[in-house]
Amino acid sequence: MRGPQGRERKIVLDYDVIITNPCGRTGELVCDSLASHGVRPYLVTGPNAHKVPHAFLKAVRDAVELTDAPVILPIFFPEVLAAHRDEFPGRLIPLSSCETILRLDDKRSCCELAASLGIPLPRIWPDADSVEEFPCVFKRTRGQGGDSVYFPKTRRALDNLLAAPVRRRDGSPRVDEALKGRGDALIMEYIDGYDICVDALRWDGFFHAAAYRVLEPRTKGVSTRRVSVEAPRLVALTRRLLDAVDYRGVAGVDWRVRGEVHVRAGKVLGSCNDDWRGACSSDASAGCALPGADAGCTLSAAPVAPDGCTLSAVPVAPDGEAFFLECNPRFSGGLESAVASGFDIPWLYWQLAHGIPADPLSIPFTPGLVTGV
């Protein structure tokens, strides 16, 4: 549009936050939460930040020029914005450093971190020749939504996965020799049981989390049906993980519980020890009584791996205990469970990033609430 003298006149729309890659239900929930508190979101739906980062960053720059919004908040691939935050001076991008995000997002490095903190892990084999039992779990070290997780039932199937082309960022295939050893793959023990996910928000001195149990799907992928549960020990272990890297932001941490699965009349029961379940979903400093834990969430009963340990040396927890699977340093696919149960993560995140304090004891939680389709 041109002004009275023929010069280009900038049109600035009135928005409070630019939300990037808001695909799926998670993006809808974040936008709805913020909008319900009067925050006006502007959506940048593409390009994909991971596949075409340069085009994505250009789209964000265009959105900044168009809206002059003071905040940029990614739903997925936060590491891209974290790595390029200097390109957006004067904008609040409430994220940890790119290095911290990638350390948690990379499944191998995050498992190594968990091992060093004494957090129980499934058995991890250093290479295909070491695998002792099938099925096992094969994971690419980066990926989301279950798109990099497989369950080979035979050694031949595992070898085929190791030899399969891996997609570059531009989508073209490559065969990486490193995958034939440790490289870009993680080979883990398959544990019969069910998944518990902990959605957490950590910002400086604030920490709060809530857990849900995945009802569907039963194998991999973003949860489509879930039930909120009380899991204070898993919350405490999640805090231990995030505290170790001084993480700032939202995260979803996945756990596997060994045990028989029973689902009846919308309620979920499982045969597992009660020592990791309790009566509170928030952190120990907010009043949780955790078996073997002090006020700082240090579980003295948890096995502690020595400095420099290898993943294969991590002790295996007995039946009924939970095993760390991975950390997703971004909004999780099960965000609906936390929000519905009373933990409004997007709004609390917004407040904390703007220096508005929040009290974990004031956050409600409703266990047994089923969400999803």
The strand count comes to: 17
Query: What is the CATH superfamily label of the largest domain?
Result: ATP-grasp fold, B domain
Secondary-structure element pattern, one letter each: EHEHEHHHEEEHEEEEEEHEEEEHHE
Radius of gyration: 21 Å
Helical segment count? 9
3D structure, described in words:
The chain is an alpha+beta fold. It folds into three domains: 77 residues; 200 residues, ATP-grasp fold, B domain (D-amino Acid Aminotransferase, Chain A, domain 1), CATH 3.30.470.20; 65 residues, no CATH class. Helix content is 24%, strand content 23%. The strands form five sheets. The protein has a six-stranded antiparallel beta sheet. A four-stranded antiparallel beta sheet has the order 4-9-5-6, with helices on one face. The longest helix has 15 residues. The N and C termini lie far apart (46 Å). The relative contact order is 0.15.
Give me the secondary-structure topology.
Layout: E1 17-20, H1 24-36, E2 41-44, H2 53-67, E3 71-74, H3 78-83, H4 98-105, H5 107-116, E4 124-125, E5 136-140, E6 149-150, H6 155-163, E7 166-167, E8 173-174, E9 185-189, E10 193-203, E11 206-216, E12 225-229, H7 232-244, E13 249-258, E14 261-264, E15 267-270, E16 322-328, H8 335-340, H9 345-353, E17 370-372
Helix pairs in contact: 1-9
